[in-house]
Amino acid sequence: MPSQPTLFQADPPAGPGGDRPPTDPDRGPPPPRVAAMRSGRPWWATLAGWVLQPWIGLKIEPQAPPELVDARPVCYVLEDYGLSNALILDRACSETGMPAPLRPLPGDPLGRKRAYVALSRRNAGGTLALATGQAPPKKTHSESLARLLEAHREDPALDVQLVPVSIFVGRSPDKASGWFSVLFSENWAIVGRFRRLLAILLNGRDTLVQFAAPVSIRELLAEDLPPERSVRKLSRLLRTHFNRLREAIIGPDLSTRRLLIDKVLASPPVKEAISDQARRDSSSPEDAWKKAHAMAYEIAADYSHPVVRSASFLLTSVWNRIYRGVLVHHLDGLKAVAPGNEVIYVPSHRSHMDYLLLSYLLYTKGIVPPHIVAGINLNLPVIGPILRRGGAFFIRRSIRGSALYSAVLAEYVAQLIAGGYSIEYFIEGGRSRTGRLLQPKGGMISMTLRAYLRQPSRPVLFQPVYIGYEKLMEGGSYLDELSGKPKEKESIWALLWSIPKVLRQNYGQVVVNFGEPIPLSELLAEHATDWDGRPLSDEDKPDWLSDTVDAAAQRIQVNINRAADVNPINLLALALLSTPKHAMGEADLLAQIALSKTLLAEVPYSDRVTVTPHSPREIVAHGEEIGVLRRIAHPLGDVFSVGDDDAVLLSYFRNNVLHLFTASAWIACCFQHNRRMARDTLMRIGRAVYPFLQGELFLAWDEDGFAERIDRTIDVFLREGLLQQVGEDDGGILARNAGQSDEVFRLRAIGHPLQQAFERYYIAISVLAKNGPGTLGAGELESLCQLAAQRLSLLYAPAAPEFFDKSLFRGFIQKLRELGLVKLDQNSKLVFDQRLETWARDAKIILGRELRHTIEKVSPEAVRAEEPAPQA
User: How far apart are the first and last CA of the chain?
Assistant: First the structure.
């Protein structure tokens, strides 16, 4: 395998220690205008810059600020005045070839012999306040901005462009900085000179300078507003820009836990719920208020910036020890749209590491960590308070039956959204034990939507995130649960006991892919066409609310799958689990991995799917290195295999990416028991079966899109020699090779992961048919299908753990109802007609005769209670 990747790769590094080199050979010398403006800086600026230089390390965004400006004069806008800010700005402009800020503009319209202004001043009026005992008058705008606008009115030839510049000193101190450095890192307060000096001395090596797109003064003046209104509008626009960017970089201006809880308890919905609770309990309003207060304290996060910073130091060491690297993709798109939006992170949930990784990743990439919804089971001694100070807020697993708790939780979420706090939650409800995305639960999405509808002032953006692992820390416990053991309850002792074991393991590489964001406004425009944009009260329950929640949940899961990563372990699992003994010769294994990579490249799933760049041979070597594969030497060629327990765990990683191979697996399944098939027949049955696959695997296309992917995949199979086209009639006849050729072996391996889905579908149809219409309810059918699948796995061949998962049967039955193939009668029993038999006849094309016979034989009939004997 190639050398170990750098932890958290995404954007190219700026230089040693985060600095940018003072010169860029690709950029070339600065334009003459810029060079002239950079010459002749004030002597004091040169001296102060020389003193400050050893303490400051700059990271400049974007990497080529000169592209932001043209030949017009440039005036920079800072959030606040300060000598350090002026010197940092001057150095950033010097390193990037921008005009110097410490030289006056042409004609010096500011009257201050410089080319920058600021919206506020550190400690402005502080001396006056101390001397007089009165607060200084509040300024509504910068006087320098007013002078600059007035100069433009007097001189029509003057055309200055304003470039807002944000400076953050010590946003992310390195792990050697310690707690003291954290205390003086960047925050929302405008600090004094001494505190700023300490911040530079302790954290100046991590200074971020961010240039924004220029603002045209001439365009603002063209609106022909009165002078005072023009200045106020410009100040407001600039201040909004700075606030949004600061919120995106270091997070919202955090209130204390106590103040947030006070807002929750003072809200009308919670007050009403407290009154109702008092009536139900026949207790005093004070007792009901205390109960609500205890619930709010049980829920609320207690975000602590020092704790987050300190945890980041610790986690850096942990990640470097247990992972070979964490790769990040498509984060730039989120950073571009995050300012001004309420971001709801909705990642896949496969490990307890998910929320730690995502929060740490966002923090190291310059985005404030979100508040995270966590189960109350994680509120353990010691660990719970740390998680709470890291932004976690704890909710009970079930809130049904407690109207007061529901009101408190909903109001807390609403206060977070109204306050601009980003939130993270897992809509699957719990960690997936099979590697598939679970059917989503809409509770938190509904709370988010209700909070937005109550105060639709800040747009909401759902951000799907795919997190892919090569090895799971919980793999052993998942294996126990899949084999029938009950889930172990979390405890502090079990956690402490597991730490040494975890730190000795190699868990391979982790990939975090950011999917396509989903604006809530788009969902509302599609499903809430009669909503006029005005706030809705908590009592309003429009008909479209439920449909919008369901649509959001489904689209989130689809977009998570569209951002999947295919790692070496995924490809090894796809190949090795397709054989009865989970073993392959080396040449066959390499060829199967190569075929999978070819399919991903020739028929890409989406532009956000990432695939390991390693060659098949490197992938096999990596599997050996982290202990997934076992090599068995043999004179006729080495064989690779996995043990039975490892095979169950590998099915998890196969299921992570199963959706990417749906079209190719469908085609291969059609030729498992058929030598030939008309292309049109293959397409027709594919369209018929697609709704069931789509519901189970959260696929991204409609039926036409799936048919188009089948068509493209057939062309790849023809080129690879897996199929041949025999004739042109009826779209052509497709045929596979006869006998047991290498091509047949590879085709069977591609189809194997999807084969058991069709077996489950046929089990459900067979159980329905055997019991007849009007006999079984939906719940009864689920239970009988699960029993039949378990027995089939014992009699026929070992199956994947999810083969007899009741939730998958539930999803299939629900889809049958949505398509009208089965219906509920007046007794809530399932009835069906001839169309179901037609569907079952198509299924026979996919399944072999022996397997069909076995399924029909093991399909149980409902046990009917005997009528009681008449009483004597």
Answer: 83
Query: What does the H/E/C string look like for 426-470?
Result: CCCCCCCCCCCCCCCCCHHHHHHHHHHHHCCCCCEEEEEEEEECC
pLDDT at residue 613, rounded to an integer: 94
Q: Collect all residues with Cβ–Cβ distance below 8 Å to 448 and sequence separation of at least 6.
A: 344, 413, 417, 423, 460, 520
What is the C-alpha R_g of the chain?
32
What was the pLDDT predicted at 171? Answer: 61
List 822's β-bridge partners, or say none. Answer: 832
Q: Kindly report the three-state secondary structure assignment for every residue of 515-556.
A: CCCEEHHHHHHHHCCCCCCCCCCCCCCCCHHHHHHHHHHHHH
Cα–Cα distance, 722 to 679 (Å, whole number): 15
- Given a contact cutoff of 8 angstroms between Cβ atoms, the answer to whether 750 and 664 are in contact is yes
Residue 61's φ and ψ, nearest 5 degrees, are: -130, 140
Q: Which of 662, 745, 732 is nearest to 697 (CA)?
A: 662
Which residues, in sequence order, are CB contacts of 239 under 8 Å at separation 6+? Answer: 119
3-state secondary structure (DSSP) of residue 187: coil
| Location of structure tokens 């990432």 | 610
Is the distance from CB of 88 to CB of 170 less than 8 angstroms? Answer: no
Q: 267 in helix, strand or coil?
A: coil
Rounded Cα distance, 7 and 510, in Å: 10
CA-closest candidate to residue 168, choices 405, 422, 367: 367
pLDDT score, position 766: 87
The phi and psi torsions of 365 (rounded to 5 degrees) equal -100, 10
Distance CA 250, CA 870 (A): 78
Helix (H) or strand (E) holding 662: helix 662-670
Which of 742, 683, 689 has its CA nearest to residue 712? 683
- pTM to 2 decimal places: 0.72
pLDDT of residue 714: 94
CA dist 320 → 5, 157, 408 (Å): 10, 58, 40
Q: Which residues pair with 585 in a beta bridge?
A: 639
DSSP label at 801? G
Position 726 scores a pLDDT of 82
Tell me the C-alpha distance between 562 and 751, whole Å: 21
CA of 363: how far to CAs of 121, 172, 229, 285, 305, in Å? 29, 8, 38, 43, 11
Residues 6+ apart with CB under 8 A from 554: 440, 698
Instruction: Return d(Cα 792, Cα 850) in angstroms, integer.
Output: 12
Beta bridge partners of 395: 375
Cα–Cα distance between 215 and 40 in angstroms, integer?
Answer: 27
**Strand 460-468 and strand 518-519: pairing?**
antiparallel
Torsion of CA 539, 392, 504, 618, to 10 degrees: 50
Of 739, 613, 648, 286, give the one whose Cα is nearest residue 433: 648
How far is C-alpha 640 from the chain's CA centre? 35
In the chain, which stretches have pLDDT less than 50? 1-38, 122-140, 172-177, 179-180, 183-184, 255, 730, 865-872
8 A C-beta contact, residue 74 and residue 45:
no
Greatest extent of the chain over all pairs of C-alpha atoms, in Å: 117
How big, in percent rounded to 5, are the helix, strand and coil portions of the chain? 50, 10, 35
CA dist 117 and 238 (Å) reads: 12
Please tell me the distance from the alpha carbon of residue 282 to that of residue 619, in angstroms, as a whole number. Answer: 67
Q: What is the pLDDT of residues 28-76, one digit of tens each?
A: 444 444 444 445 567 677 777 777 877 788 888 886 665 666 778 899 9
Parallel, antiparallel or unpaired: strands 423-424 and 58-61: unpaired
Chain center to CA of 619: 26
Instruction: Look up residue 309 and give its two tokens.
Output: 């910073």
Rounded to whole angstroms, how far apart are CA atoms 161 and 74? 5
CB–CB of 576/641 below 8 Å?
A: yes
